[in-house]
Amino acid sequence: MSRQRLDKTLAHMGIGTRSELKKIAKQGRIQVNGHIVKDAGLQIAPEHDRIEVDGEWIQYKEFIYLMLNKPQGVISATEDGRERTVLDLLDGTLRIFDLFPVGRLDKDTEGLLLLTNDGQLAHNLLSPRKHVPKTYLAHVEGAVGEADQNYFAEGVRLDDGYVTLPAQLVIQHVDEDCSPPLSVIDLTIHEGKFHQVKRMFQAVDKQVVYLKRIQMGTLLLDPKLALGEYRELSNKELEGLKGEAT
Ligand code: URA
């Protein structure tokens, strides 16, 4: 049973800074297993002890996992001098958790982005050896056809000579009435090269004009999340991802 300081535990849960927690404890607002604790430095067992602040149960979690529906215009970084980052979309109380995005979406790409402070899971999901599939919905200028599907299924030679792993291209709809034609497709890739989806279409002389990630491994973007909204993963979603990344 691992033990750690009460203030460290509560700071990790986003309840306050160490100095704020010292004050809160002195005010008699913290209870551990039903007893008021005024010493914020008390050693406790976060996984076992019941901690309450102002009567509210603070359920300890070592890691946080959020699914974000990333909007366009924000960058997938933890900080940037000039641009808004995905962390700027989070509620202030979550800022304390050292969350970071698992992988990158371009500034103009929308959709599923996992934010966590679980470095091991992130590492496993991003490992080139794991080939965790990622599915994108794209609007593409040009008539995407069977020849593209076959080429993508073999592997596409990108502008730098790299040949991608086989990718699955599903054509949803091709509108031939507009000029140039507009195709709506789903593409599943098994790696994450820089601008990969856009560059795969460039290789067949077509241009991605809208891109949204809709799936990563077993994790599906929740259609109830509006752009910029996020929620914690369910246990089932988390287990699915962990299974994927082992
Ligand atoms: N491929 C791209 O081209 N851009 C993204 O943001 C993700 C995949």
Which structural category do the helix and sheet elements fall into? alpha+beta
Order of helices and strands: EHHEEEEEEEEHEHEEHEEEH
**What does the overall shape look like?**
elongated
Percentage of residues in DSSP E strands: 25-35%
Number of strands: 15
What small-molecule ligands were found? uracil
Helix content: 10-25%
Secondary structure elements and their pairing?
Layout: E1 4-5, H1 6-12, H2 18-26, E2 30-32, E3 35-36, E4 43-44, E5 51-53, E6 56-57, E7 65-70, E8 100-101, E9 109-116, H3 119-126, E10 134-141, H4 146-154, E11 168-175, E12 182-189, H5 196-202, E13 207-216, E14 219-220, E15 230-232, H6 235-244
Parallel strand pairs: 9-13
Antiparallel strand pairs: 1-4, 2-3, 2-5, 5-6, 7-9, 7-15, 8-9, 10-12, 10-13, 11-12, 13-14
Structure notes:
- With 246 residues, the chain is of the alpha+beta class.
- 20% of the residues lie in helices and 28% in strands.
- The chain has helices at 6-12, 18-26, 119-126, 146-154, 196-202, 235-244; strands at 4-5, 30-32, 35-36, 43-44, 51-53, 56-57, 65-70, 100-101, 109-116, 134-141, 168-175, 182-189, 207-216, 219-220, 230-232.
- Strands 7, 8, 9, 10, 11, 12, 13, 14 and 15 form a nine-stranded mixed β-sheet that branches.
- The protein starts with a strand and ends with a helix.
- Bound molecules: uracil (URA).
